[in-house]
Every structure is written in C-alpha cells, then in structure tokens.
Amino acid sequence: MPRAASICYVQGCTSRTVRSGRCGVHAPPERAWARPSARNQLRDSAWERRVRPRALARDGFACVRCGAREGLEVDHITPIAKGGTWTLDNAQTLCRPCHSAKTQRDRTKP
Q1: What is the pTM of this model?
Q2: How far apart are alpha carbons 74 and 85 in whole angstroms?
Q3: Is the Cα dihedral 63, 66, 71, 74 positive or negative?
Q4: CA angle 30, 33, 38 (to 5 degrees)
Q5: What is the rounded distance in angstroms from the CA atom of residue 5 to the CA atom of residue 1?
Q6: Residue 44 burial (CB count, 10 A)
Q7: Which of 18-30 are b and which e, b meaning 16 or more Cβ less than 10 Å from the residue's Cβ?
Q8: To 10 degrees, the CA torsion angle through 25, 27, 30, 33?
Q9: Residue ranges of E strands in 40-106
C-alpha cells in the first residue's frame, strides 16, 4: 500500500513534502559538502581494491621516506589537483607524519 502524502512541517504550510519533511519552498538548500567534487568523481573503487594494496606490497609495507611500518597511508606522488593520476605509478606508501609533511609542501608549491 503506498504511503500517504505528508504535508510540510512549517507552521501554516499545507503543501506536500519534497525533502527533509518540507515543501519545495521551505526545503533547505543542498549543502555544497554533500556533493563530491569533480576530481573525486573520477576516483574509482579500483584505487582501494587494486592500486592501494599493490603500492603497499611494492613498497614493502613501509614508509618510503623513513621506513616506519605503522600508520601507513598511500599517497599520490603528484596530487590529483595538479594533474596526477589514479595509477600505481603515481602512488607511494608514507607514514602519517611523512604524508602530512609532504601534503604541506605540495600546498605551498605553485
């Protein structure tokens, strides 16, 4: 059995709900952070399933900068925002402190 139409919960409004219990007039605007950015839409689950594990194995499950074996993250050598790719050639294993330092350097480079 279909669900009964509900009305907007803004006092005095009798229009049907569209989103978040409100009508089209009273519905909140779509939040910018709820939409993925254009560059993240290019990201595929293939990164998580194929590239990331291969990068970790290739680098011996250790940070390529300091050799740490805990808190590992796979980083893009050339950031996606600066023309990098989602491939294994552009991936490296870094520990959290080295990754943070590299990210800071990448942000200050033109």
Answers
A1: 0.60
A2: 13
A3: negative
A4: 105
A5: 12
A6: 11
A7: eeeebbeebeeee
A8: 150
A9: 72-76, 91-95
- Going by the DSSP 8-state scheme, the letter that residue 16 receives in this structure is B
Q: pLDDT tens for residues 54-110?
A: 999 999 999 999 999 999 999 999 988 888 888 999 999 999 999 999 999 988 877
Task: Name the amino acid, one letter, at 93.
Answer: T
Dist CA 38 CA 81 (whole Å): 10
The length of the chain is 110
Domains and CATH numbers, the chain: 1-35 (no CATH), 38-108 (3.40.1800)
The letter for the amino acid at 97 is P
- For 60, 67, 98, the CA distances from 53, given in Å and listed in that order, are 11, 17, 19
Q: Give the separation between CA 82 and CA 102, rounded to whole angstroms.
A: 14
